[in-house]
Design brief:
Elements: H1 13-37, H2 42-86, E1 90-97, E2 101-103, E3 106-111, H3 117-123, E4 128-129, H4 134-140, E5 154-155, H5 169-181, E6 190-192, E7 197-204, E8 209-216, E9 228-230, H6 242-247, E10 251-259, E11 275-280, H7 288-291, E12 293-295, E13 300-311, H8 329-341, H9 351-360, H10 365-375, E14 383-392, H11 399-406, E15 408-427, H12 431-448, H13 450-477
Transmembrane segments: 65-85, 434-457
Family: Belongs to the amiloride-sensitive sodium channel (TC 1.A.6) family.
Pfam families: ASC (PF00858)
Amino acid sequence: MKKYFAVKHVGNPTHGAMKRSGKAENTVIASLENNLEEKPPIVEDETANSRAQFVRFIWKCLKSLVFVVCVALFFQQTAEFYILYKTYPTATNIMVTYPKFLKTPAITVCNRNLINKTEFCVLNAEYCMKPRNIERLCERHPNVCMGNISEITIPMLGYHTMESGYLNPYTRRLGQEFLFDTDPKKSYPFETPWRKWKTNYVYDMNMNSHARCHSENLHIFSEEELQNTTFRSVAELDYPTSNSLYELQMVKISTLKIKMMDEKESFYLWADSQVYLSIHSPVVPSNPFMHGKPLRTGYIYDVYVRLSRFALAALGLVTRGRGRRTPSPFALSHKLHRLRFHLEDEQQDWTSVSRARYHIVPDTSKEALHLCLKKCKENCLKLKFHYTVDERTPEVYTPSELSTMRTEIKVNIFIQDRSVTVVSHKPLYGNWEMFSYVGGLMGCWLGISVWAFIGIIERNYSRALQLMKKFRAKKAKF
């Protein structure tokens, strides 16, 4: 750095000229010496500048890293929430109501024991044979061995027939034909009060065959209104008693008496339970062999039914949240169709199956499915009937009553109380909830990274301004 000095001259100019020139020379020499002595340390300044640049670079990298991590976490949590939202999670609300009218449930009774073994063997002697071990058969089924055991014959179903357990495929087929040819009215349960029974055939997976079932108050192809059960109020009672007050909470809707064939004439000797009962919604069929309760002869059963109603979500939405799925109309109808008929594969050319289809559906299977689609409504699966079954032995007084009870099953069906449990599933996240959730995530992560975000924006903005100035300067030169 150069230093300049001003010198003032006073007195005789000639005399002072000699003095002034000598002093000026001395002053310039002193100034140069001082400049040489005060020269700054260039190496130390460059080291400080490089350290400052390195610190600024590290700080910039740290800011960028924090910002990138925050943005990545924001997008990750947003994607996770979007996936959760698409699964349509719901919140379950439970409410108990006490209506005066309740929908009467449907009753379905299936009976395996409708093929008379003796009659079948008389008509189809070539498909029956004597048991291969009559002593063991009599030990397991003593009722079969009453009378002359040398004349006992059983169908070739692989049970105590042939050494290898031979099963003649035609035996089962003929048994199905025998079942379809008998009058279904003969197997109607005797009911008090009397109601109209509808006959259908349900496939039994355990027996690998169809069984005849009778359903009451089942509305699949009919236009009839659903039946209601009415509960009386206390004001309607003339003389309230303990029994009448108890009846306000429990209503007996039906009493069934199911006549059974003698056990020794049973076509399927190995079947422990021949009758199955199911209580279900009047608009949704049920397979009693899969979802019902087995009944035994000689017992009285008290069935207590309770109703619950489910408010499903809108159709067409996939509700995988918490294990629930709302079916589409076609899927619902197809499910009803399969539950209703349990048909065999179209490729199987079985006469019994074709006959079963003739009895089960009003026309072909495709047309029946079309009917299901037309009859399907959104509330098909809303009604759920839960029931418990109590088994007890009857009080028998005479030998005739005892012999009657051996071939009879009595069922009393009650609606336990008038309370209805209403279960509704509401969406856990609506449109505003989703907006609030995403906005909260954005505010959280951007709030954490705002200090890094603003620093990056300012630095990039200043750098952009410098580039613009350089560009304009170059443009002005040219």
